[in-house]
Amino acid sequence: MTNDHPSDTPESGPKKRRFLSAEKKFQIYLEAQSTDKPVGELLRREGLFSTDLARIRQQVKEGALVRLSAKPGRKTETVASSEFEALKQELSDKERALADMAVELTLLRKKTNGVSSGR
Predict the structure, then answer these.
(1) What pLDDT is recorded for position 30?
(2) N or C: where does the chain have the smaller number of CB atoms within 10 Å of the terminal CB?
(3) 108, exposed or middle or buried, with CB in 10 Å at 0-12, 13-18, 19+?
């Protein structure tokens, strides 16, 4: 049985986008910065285009600027948005419970003050 569908051949299918880790991008950046090998050789070996290298260089520059512009001292922590939403909900629930308790306390004080004064 032969395969007559041209879309089933490896050459005709859409190219899958390659994912490069941050470490790999930085390695490519460093290698491109060295002058001992031609950049074209690196691009061919990695299967990249010059626009890919330009994008990597821009990302490295942006990352470096962000990191270098950070104020010394405590590092800011990042939190996942789902965790942030859960914390917001928990805070809202606790604020509601605190408000309910404040109302109860006020009512109890009124009852206690009314009874103890004997009036």
Answers:
(1) 93
(2) N
(3) exposed
